[in-house]
Amino acid sequence: MNKNYETVFIINPVLSEKQVEDTVKKYKKQLDGKKVKFVCNESLGFKELAYPINKKNSGFYHLFQYESDDINIVKELEIELKRDRSILRYMTVSLCKDGVEFNARRASGEFNKKKTKK
Question: Which long-range contacts (CB under 8 A, 24 or more apart) does 90-97 make?
Fold first, then answer.
């Protein structure tokens, strides 16, 4: 049975837009090679960090949400993220059915709708 995973990683802010793009492509290609089913591959943008990491105060956030039945795929991805000097931090979580449902609603834009004043 497939489990749903979500990996968020923060890319060093000193990289160019092309380098950031190449970094994301590298990890997407790694997961594609393992035949995972991507649910979401989304840039979360450039954000300030809550606290400095490696003397950096900001970074490019990126989200992968994917399905796999092999936990080793997640472990291999995390090993590569840990080795990469352009990655400041990363975190992978296993999503329960409520998390999957919430992300599907978020991806459809349900939470971005402006409230109209009456």
Answer: 90/7, 90/8, 90/9, 90/10, 91/7, 91/8, 91/9, 92/5, 92/6, 92/7, 93/5, 93/6, 94/3, 94/4, 94/5, 95/3, 95/4, 95/5, 95/6, 95/65
